[in-house]
Design goal:
There is one protein chain. The chain is α/β, with parallel strands linked by helices. It is built from 10 helices and 15 strands. A 7-stranded parallel beta sheet has the order 6-5-4-9-12-14-15, sandwiched between helices. It has a 3-stranded antiparallel beta sheet with strand order 1-3-2. Strand 7 and strand 8 form a beta hairpin. Helix 2 packs across helix 3, helix 5 crosses helix 6 and helix 8 runs parallel beside helix 9.
Length: 253
Amino acid sequence: MRAEERKRRILARARADGRVDVVEMAQELRVAPETVRRDLRVLDEHGLVRRTHGGAIPVESAGFETGLRFRAGSHVPEKRRIAKAAAERLDDAETVFIDEGYTPQLVAEALPTTNPLTIITASLPTAAAMSEHPSCTVLLLGGRVRGHTLATVDHWTTRMLGEMVIDLAYIGANGISREHGLTTPDPAVGAVKSRALGASRRKIFVGTHTKFGVSSFHRFAEVSDLEAVVTDSGLTAHEAHRYTLLGPKVIRA
């Protein structure tokens, strides 16, 4: 099998399964594990995968993005810890923007609802979950619904956000890096995130350690724009400190 075909199959497996294991892939392709590791190094250098211990995970790009169903089954314990730690930073905020995605949805569900809250979101699942709380007023942003994330985008969405002043935004991203800031594959999604951050007094990023050091197609914010970054302990203390130097408080839940 030619090297290019081998790399295409490795990348396809990573995108289909959410990860690729070196030993399993070597057995499937009938090559040595070192051959797969070499291919993964090349794919990593081209920004298509991110190497992990024993394998790699796919990097989201303009041509590839995971769906909500996959995200809801990936790193769930870590996401729940992140959500709890992020929700504890609500303080006196009364109007809260909740970004699309599974981790922000978990943040919304972890928010204390003893006091009245106004939740602004483009996410249909988040709007449905939070509308069950009598103390919450939910504002669902209108627009075109993306099937991948069940969230709204385009000018209808950004126009509504442009009329608001929001206390706190919980924002997600497909990638966050010190060099390129917060990124996402779809510029329409990036426009919503950017407008939400611009309308918000406080800004908190929530995401697992797998998001760090990753850059996608469209940049919508800088790390220095954030009040805090809430992630899991998979991000090393040394790397967390490097992000802290850019301005935000980094919390590893």
